[in-house]
Input
Amino acid sequence: MTEEIIIAGFGGQGVLSMGKILAYSGVMQNQEVSWMPAYGPEMRGGTANVTVILSDEKVSSPILHEYDTAIVLNQQSMNKFEKAVKPGGILLFDPNGITTPPTRTDINIYKIEGTAEAANMGNPKTFNMIILGAYLKLKPIIKMENVEKGLQNSLPERHHKLIPLNLKAIDMGMEKVEKFSLQ
Amino acid sequence: MSNINDIIKPENLVYKKADALSDNIMHYCPGCSHGTVHKLIAETLDELGIQDKTIGVSPVGCGVFAYNYINCDWQQAAHGRAPALATGTKRLMPDHYVFTYQGDGDLASIGTSEIMHAVNRGENITVIFINNGIYGMTGGQMAPTTLVGMETSSSPYGRDISIHGYPIKITEILAQLPGAAYVTRQSVHNATAVRKAKKAVKKAFEVQGKAIGTSIVEIVSTCSSGWKMTPTGANEWMTENMFPNYPLGDIVDKSKPKQEDLEQFPLK
Amino acid sequence: MGELKLMKGNEVIAEAAIRCGCDGYFGYPITPQSEIMEYLALREPWKETGMVFLQAESEVAAINMIYGGASCGKRVMTTSSSPGMSLMMEGLSYIAGAELPCVIVNIVRGGPGLGTIQPSQADYNQATKGGGHGDYQSIVLAPATVQEMYDFVELSFDLAFKYRIPAIILSDGVIGQMMEKVTLGEFKPRWTAEQIEQMSGSWATTGMKGRKMNVTTSLRLQSEDLEKHNNNLQAKYRTIEKEEVRFDEYMTDDAEYILVAYGSSARICHKTVELAREKGLKVGLLRPITVWPYPTKRLQELAQKAKGMMAVEMSAGQMFIDLKLAVNGKTPVEYYGRMGGMVPSPSEVLGALEKQLIGGANNE
Ligand SMILES: Cc1ncc(C[n+]2csc(CCOP(=O)(O)OP(=O)(O)O)c2C)c(N)n1
Ligand SMILES: [Mg+2]
Output
């Protein structure tokens, strides 16, 4: 199994840390992983993205130009990464702030109202975990116990009290993700 | 109700963006001082009518893209070397106005040698020195100007004088060099300060016109991103902590020289 | 077994230095490698191992702090990225001239000049051909994984001391910024003063108690002396070329076409080989691990049976020249690369290979 994922949105949406949790979770189930961020000043307030690869074999190229799954959290990223999903792959997006919805018919498109659900949960910081939950529902490649271990390993000790809230957000994402129908 | 077009008349104009300031959207973070200082330089170029005979030298640091915002000729220097480029330029183009725009890492760390010797030679250049006490561009590492105890990404437990030494008052050091003609320290954290800083920037260019030595304007600045504060919080923190270390005001002014000054440091 | 971690390449460099008994680090912030310094500042190794850490006022200062530390027989390291490396070239030349061991890490970014902070391999010539003035070499290791970032720190120190030569870890923003699994080794104690005296007492400036004075210098005013010194250096370089070549091969056994790439480019080419094999194309990869000394001999052997070879690098064909010199006309050699911080994709490389070599051969 090899899963090649791009997660893209604004800096501050927790894109990089979501990728980190995913990568850590992969390590917890003995997979090979790579986590490659786009870095640089464009990240300040601008766009942020990270390529995460989970595989049963050694990861070859950590930088890719097409992906099994694209998780898209703003319009710029939609413009850039909708076309980069492999045919038959998955595009998961949060419709908040999306002015031009996706149009491809050769991929599976899902939406998750992450921004809205995070507001409902009363904590905007749960946003990325809701997205992660939605993703894991679509691609159950990681056991929940390993996600929990991944959280433990990637969060600093002082944030460990937030793990139950994060797990709740993941459940929320799993519940709320839905197939997006093209108009 | 009066028609808006009746109001838009030259005689009603209260504020106008400087012509020398470009329309590009600045990349600076909210609360950053760089943008305000750019504006003051642009206004000075307008008011002195020297836009077309001014050459700026931009640093390495957040001010690296100053050439996107102030419309005049620019050179982009390597980290810390701006005073050397400015020296070469001014020596070859003595009837042009030449200024460097430098951060504290650029001027007070990697470029101490270049700035010291440029001022020591009394180069007729203007130095605009943005001291935000941190390396803004690279992500908030400690600068030589960082205050004692201040936490940065490369001094996460606070600046410790036993390891890192003291915050360098480079402007006071430069002020001691006979080649310095006008040395002042200002800030841009409120309207009064901006007005004073404007006067200082303008005077610095005027001093350059007199060819009596180097003019230096330090602007004690905020870096809300690097300091990890809100813009208003950064202003307050600066007032409480930076100003006592870096007191505002003129340090040297030989533009109207006193007799004893002239005897000690004769004009070139 | 050591500890398994998920870490960034840059952080791993810092952790490796602490664990392998590095005595001192001196550096100046520059993207994309500032994490090395920030990690050390946070980690406070001076409390644990006594390793010294200091943020220098410039790269010029940093490399000269290294010159001083290395002169004392200490295991010292600095790290930087391209513009900072250029500033270090003066110091590096002096260190090479004085035959001192040290480790230098370059997390290369796009140039020339201030360029970009995005990954590049355009400092290949600077690293492998001396870089500063004079006839000298540094041993240059090019890690392709975060694990190798770890392993090569200790290896670099070992080689640097074995030959009294600067060792450079030539990496880039891809490997520096990427997180992968890494197994951290055991802590090794720093050398004691007695050990240093025993190992390096014949040259290190540790104080002349009980022996004649030592001077570390690159100055030899008499041309006869300096030529002799240069001859000794060259002899040492020939030994290193014989003894220390390191490389890795992937599917070269039956390969008709061989990609030659190092560091992050080799990771990309690894995937290119997989894509090519899916299409039934017999493509393999040779990855120089030491880019100096270059795996010339092995490439000559492979050239005997290959239908063609292609250098793939994020620079304008700097390594391509070394490949051509090695192959010396035995088989067609092509180049494909990107510059300015652009990273080629695996399929892009395959396209270039098909167009420039495979297609060309079939048309003949
Ligand atoms: C030779 C060299 N070393 C390091 C750097 C990386 N670098 C870019 S900006 C900067 C510090 C800038 O700080 P400062 O001058 O205080 O300007 P600020 O961003 O705070 O305005 C550094 C170290 C570089 N570009 N070149
Ligand atoms: Mg600064």
Notes: The pocket of thiamine diphosphate (ligand 1) is lined by residues B 59-63, 79, 103-106, 130, 132, 134-138, 143, 223; C 28-30, 59, 83-84, 87, 114 (CB under 6 Å). Residues 25-264 of chain B form a domain with the Rossmann fold fold (CATH 3.40.50.970). The beta strands of chain B are 54-58, 73-76, 97-103, 126-131, 134-135, 141-142, 180-187, 214-220, 249-253. Chain B has one domain: 25-264.
